[in-house]
Every structure is written in C-alpha cells, then in structure tokens.
Amino acid sequence: MKVVIVGGGQVGQYIAHMLIKNNCTVKLIENREEILEKIKKELPQDCIVEGSGTDPSVLESIKMADADVAAIVTGADETNLVASTIAKYEFGVPRVIARVNNPKNAWMFNAEMGVDVALNQADLMAHIVVEEMDLKNILTLMKMNRGDYSIIQISVDDQSEAVSKEISRLDIPEKALLIAVYRGKEVIIPHGNTVILSGDNILAFADSDSTNKLNALFGLR
Questions:
Q1: Domain 2-119 has what CATH class?
Q2: pLDDT tens digits for range 101-153
Q3: What whole-number distance in Å separates Cα of residue 120 and Cα of residue 216?
Q4: Residue 109 in contact with residue 98, Cβ under 8 Å?
Q5: What are the domain boundaries of the chain?
Q6: Which of 47, 89, 170, 180 has its CB 3.0 to 4.6 Å from that of 203, i.e. a possible disulfide?
C-alpha cells in the first residue's frame, strides 16, 4: 500500500513510523526547516519529501495519483482542506483522511471537499467524557492486535521536569503520541505550545518502552 502523508509534525511522524513498520510505502511531505531537520534523523531519507502538500508540482513529483491513501495531518485546517481537495479531485486518491484541528471547522471536512474520513480529536474526547468511560477499560479496548501499543493515562507529578513547559520543549518518545490533556473538567487537545501543569492527566498512545519513558518524563524527577 502506498500512503502519502502531508504534515511532518508529531502526528505525521507517528503515522509514518507505524506504516513503515507494517511494510507500507510512505511519502511524508513537509516544508518547515526545523521539522525537516528532526525527521531526517528519524525516518528513511527516501520517504521524506521537502515541499508543500498543496503544491501540485510536488504531488506530481511523488506520483500522488498512484497513492492508495492520503493522510492530511498538518496543524492548519485550511491547509488540510486544500490538500484534501487537491488529492481527491486532481489526483484521484481513493481514500483521503484529514485531521480536524479546530472542532468549529469540522463541518467543512466533508466529501465535497474531498475528505473521506475526518479525524476530529476533540469530538473523540468529548464522547469519552460524555459517556464517562473508564480509562482503564479504554486501555484494554485499544490494545493493538500487532505489537504492544496501547492507550495509557499518566498523571503529572508536581515534581516532574515537564511542569510549566510547553510540549514542544519536551522529549516525547518517537513511538508515543499525546492524545489529550485532562485538567479538572477541561479536556485540552495538545499542541506544541500547550503548557503542562502539575496534576494534569495525560492520555497517550504508546508502546511499552515509550510508556516507561513517558512515566519517567511526567513523574518524579
């Protein structure tokens, strides 16, 4: 399966790692220099494409028309919508998956815009809160059939080195993805500028080794 990922941030990198591990052909498109420097150290060079995911010439150069799936996961909804439309209507990608960053924009991520599946993280978290699901049950339900990835919950200790720091400044393991931060009754969708506070509960997706690293990061110094 050939998958094109637009957006090389935490989400894009994580998806790329998992797909490569499962023998998929992956092309990850990114145009931010600081992100490119990081992913060049973590991903095979032949899967990294420097450029914009909304530039038809870039998409043409990687034979976007041959892709089975396009995963559009940048941190900007306007970029994700444009990239989705181009992928679907200019290159005929059979399945286009797009990330929704701002829940208020979710209504725009539809078939007319070329989006087959809209991933609305906030909506998922809202359902968990409303349904009052036990996070321990979520961990069991979300255990992966292959490997040892699972959903975990971590409480931030007041002595943790992560307290009062932005997520972008933390050494998050490459095989871990922060899904949500619970702060009292508030549910926060984590971004690079989200500041971690003592007492936060963090929902993450990680393998067993990364789970240990996250516990060390958010636990006692």
A1: alpha beta
A2: 888 898 999 999 999 988 887 666 665 555 544 444 444 444 444 456 777 88
A3: 29
A4: yes
A5: 2-119, 133-218
A6: 180
